[in-house]
Write a structure and sequence with these properties.
This protein is mainly alpha-helical. It has helices at 40-68, 73-87, 125-137, 145-156, 164-181, 186-208, 213-238, 259-270, 274-302, 316-337, 342-365, 371-392, 397-406, 411-422, 426-454, 456-459, and strands at residues 23-25, 28-30, 91-96, 100-107, 110-117. It folds into two domains: 42-156, no CATH class; 164-459, no CATH class.
Length: 475
């Protein structure tokens, strides 16, 4: 329903109706006048709807900003409900998908329903934290729409925390750490760092031009894997490098694993926000297929194998010392790719280092222990540790837990399964796919249990479907 334009006013008190309240637009207060022949009740409803239009608009703007940063549907709805209460809306209900928000606001005997489509998709953990902290600061207060507009403008003006070089370097070191955790040696890690650096550099520039995401993932996957193959092939031809490092080129495209929407999609499903969760996971699958097609195409073009034939043998203290370092580096790099501040990167990397090395130690010490169970336990403790840190800082739990668990996503088996499938190796492809599927499910279950243990909003369902304003997504 379109908003009624504000007009000049006079009081309705003489007619026994409620006096119209002035409408504030753009910092200017506009009183509202009654047209000839209009009843006081009609005039009051028009004034109330004018005011509600501006209130609902600012709440919808907050939801769009959070959605564009990659926030889960629960966080978007919860934050919108808290802001709605702060600006004077009596009831607020929102339906959130991955790209759309439908919101209805009720106040002063009238209501307004609006729909917004958000096509700019990405991940910005710093902005999620800023928006969440801003909304939390309004709790128990009544604020004007202009004040909220100014606050959101300030947050919107904050630039990306890292320039192109730091961003690309984060990709390189994260994939290098990933490569070591996937049994790659110093040669694989070094070449992977270079290939992922240039792959992320290309992806950043293409994303800034708002190019199609599926085309971006396909192009950058092809570039990164091709750079790896060319560098290793040159070393084999001119430096006499042994031909045992071919399969490492899959680690060069692990920066393309969409870990943030993958985890938030699982969280949405656990919260029964099926429209948002299913849409996110479909988006993730499409990106992975795009990158997988590129990996398969490059491997077919150069006749390279995706089956690993290398490994390393280190003493205990060396092995776990390097695993600690690689886990910290990989988590820190992914946190930077999510645009987290340095303090958040350190905290997330510390959590990732502890839970990942503990998981590896458990599976090494107890050979019969199910790998998926170890992953689930690690994700559970990642969620609990993120809760402890979030309560003592102004960081959100999602920005702490996602980089920590992303390094447990089996990216190498994922892309390898796609390559096997395209080569007709069905049994090998299915084995890798099931490994990936159950590992991802275990991560989701672990994080969900951690949420239910620490957040009443996750443990108890509100029958009205509206998030409780007394809690928080990071409570």
């Amino acid at each position: 329903m379109p908003a009624v334009e504000p007009r000049d006013s006079h009081s309705l008190a003489a007619d026994g109706g409620l006096p119209p309240q002035p409408v504030s637009v753009g910092g200017q207060v506009h009183p509202v006048a009654r047209r000839p022949g209009e009843s006081s009740l009609t005039m009051h409803r028009m004034v109330a709807h004018d005011r509600l239009a501006h209130q609902s608009r600012i709440v919808l703007r907050l939801g769009q900003m959070l959605l564009s940063c990659g926030a889960s549907a629960f966080r978007v709805k919860h934050s919108m409900a808290k802001l709605a209460q702060a600006v004077g809306i009596e009831q607020h209900h929102a339906q959130v998908t991955y790209t759309e928000i439908i919101a209805t606001a009720y106040a002063s005997g009238t209501f307004r329903t609006e729909l917004a489509e958000q096509r700019a998709m990405g991940v910005n953990a710093d902005r999620i934290d800023r928006l969440s902290n801003y909304v939390d600061s309004l709790e128990g207060r009544h604020v004007l729409v202009e004040e909220v507009d100014a606050g959101l403008d300030e947050i919107d003006k904050v630039p990306q925390l890292y320039g192109w070089f730091a961003n690309a370097m984060a990709s390189g070191v994260a994939c290098a750490g990933f490569s070591f955790l996937n049994h790659g040696g110093w040669i694989e890690c070094s070449v992977v760092a270079v290939a992922a650096f240039f792959g992320q550099l290309l992806r950043r520039r293409m994303m800034r031009r708002r190019m199609n995401h599926f085309g971006v993932w396909m192009a950058t996957g092809a570039v990164a894997s091709t750079i790896y193959i060319l560098l290793v092939a040159a070393a084999q031809n001119y430096l006499g490098l042994e031909p045992t490092h071919q399969a490492g080129f899959i680690s060069a495209v692990l920066f393309l694993v969409p870990g943030f929407p993958l985890v938030t999609g699982i969280i949405d499903l656990v919260r029964q926000d099926f429209q948002a969760g299913i849409a996110r996971l479909v988006y993730v699958c499409m990106l992975l297929v795009s990158a997988g097609v590129a990996v398969w195409g490059v491997s077919l073009l150069f006749h390279w194998s995706v089956t690993p034939v290398y490994d390393y043998h280190l003493v205990f203290w060396q092995l776990y010392g390097f695993r600690l370092g690689a886990s910290f580096i990989a988590s820190y790099g992914f946190a930077m790719l999510f645009n987290s501040p340095p303090k958040v990167c350190v905290a997330a990397a510390g959590i990732g280092m502890v839970i990942n090395v503990s998981r590896l130690f458990l599976t090494d010490s107890v050979p019969d222990f199910p790998v998926q169970a170890a992953v689930g336990l690690a994700a559970l403790f990642a969620g609990l540790l993120a809760t402890v840190v979030a309560r003592r800082t102004r960081f959100s739990r999602v920005t702490l837990s996602v980089p920590a668990v992303v390094i447990m996503i089996p990216g190498v088996p994922l892309y390898r399964s796609l390559a096997y499938l395209n080569d007709g190796q069905i049994s090998d492809a299915l084995a890798s796919m099931f490994t990936v599927f159950f590992t991802i499910i275990s991560i989701g279950v672990g994080l969900a249990v951690a949420r239910m243990l620490t957040d009443r909003n996750w443990l108890m369902e509100n029958p009205r479907g509206v998030p409780s304003l007394g809690g928080s997504p990071d409570a």
